[in-house]
């Protein structure tokens, strides 16, 4: 009887943008574990946006995700970026094995997910179904508040998280070495720099350890090779981190607030 | 030597509103397991908003949460609503024990968390730090899109999730019986009805099983007792689900979209 081959890891995400799929890609790339990026395969090989859409539309033997990314491995399908990473990271060796570290990593990742949702809403504050051009006025107002209040808050949280991990000596967020949370932090620092270069140049001064973490991750041999490859989709204005210069301004003064 | 008493479960959440803390409360109430609602204790007994604020401000031997809710149990502190529920549900017996069920539950809960964040942004589309009155115009526009597109999408997801759980026979979302995900679904159905009564009356017709699930949860003896008690804070306009009649309108027509 022929031996059944081991399942492959299949990432389902829209082609053409980094999006939330990038957090999953970085974990595989850092681990050096092969994965199929289904959305970027040709349709003739079962890939493309159509394959991603089918996963979301056709009932399967699993919970149908509301949206990508989703990771399939044999009979397992996991959606929701933070849940995917929580599930796959121990299998990839990009999180310490003990329960306390995994719980810590997941909480940080969920907070990064909150940040990512807010970044998205800086250019889509009214509706994801409308063009940016149809919500530019609201976007300018929301982005101003985001730059003024939320970027410092989230960066401060991540910087503070370094302090609560003595084993990482200010260099890593969970345990003694690199984990998927460091990869995700690299991605949000890179993304915020792309989207809000002026604001970040100012805001990053207060949290130099995050810039150092970004550089440390970018220099990991597998990540450096990935970033230089065609597998790394450049940041662009289809993704979550978009550079609209008009949103990268000094924050408007608040009129009044609680 | 005196035996050291077992730790208590301590929920940290702002007093005066249900908020995200309510999802955690419902799990404890359904399980009949005692917990201390720290924010609602008098300050003289170590409670109140000050105790919640101190947890967020003072570095402890744990990862400082960016915001509440947080659950403390001995040396463990868990923040992020979905992570709290994932951690505590097996201990409370409100999720099946097998890994597949727990993974399924967590994915649904994370999608509910996305819904909750969007509900919040219907009345705060620009900034959490501004009053509703200072973002009413944007709120009307965002709420219109939310009612028209997002409520049907999220309700459709939850309704479809019933189909992908044959063991639940259309009655429960995970496994054969009630889990914390059913409690959270009860809460979002109740909350959406409170915030958007006109819209929900119309939208719920397409998903009658969710209304039945709401009623089934509300009739669980421990939940019925909880809802009738003073421990259940009424919905109000400090919470996530707010009833502003001007936001509960027929959706505006979309101008154009992708």
Which terms summarize this structure?
homodimer; mainly alpha; Glutaredoxin; Glutathione S-transferase Yfyf (Class Pi), Chain A, domain 2; 2 domains; four-stranded mixed sheet; 9 helices
Plain-language structure description:
Chains A, B: GO terms for molecular function: transferase activity. Chains A, B: It comes from Anaeromyxobacter oryzae. The structure is a homodimer. A four-stranded mixed beta sheet of chain A has the order 2-1-3-4, sandwiched between helices. In chain A, about 45% of the residues are buried. Chain A folds into two domains: about 80 residues, Glutaredoxin (3-Layer(aba) Sandwich), CATH 3.40.30.10; about 140 residues, Glutathione S-transferase Yfyf (Class Pi), Chain A, domain 2, CATH 1.20.1050. Chain A has nine helices and four strands. In chain A, a hairpin with a 2-residue loop joins strand 3 and strand 4. The longest helix of chain A has 28 residues. In chain A, helix 6 packs across helix 8. Chain A is mainly alpha-helical and about 260 residues long. At the A-B interface, strand 4, helix 3, helix 4 and helix 5 of A face strand 4, helix 3, helix 4 and helix 5 of B.
Major sheet of chain A: size, sense and barrel closure?
4 strands, mixed
Give the overall silhouette of chain A: globular
CATH class annotation of the largest domain in chain A: Mainly Alpha
By helix and strand content of chain A, what is the structural category?
mainly alpha
Indicate the proportion of strand residues of chain A: 5-15%
Domain module count of chain A: 2
Second-tier CATH architecture of the largest domain in chain A: Up-down Bundle
* Total number of strands of chain A: 4
Give the helix proportion of chain A (percent range): 40-55%
Tally of helical segments of chain A: 9
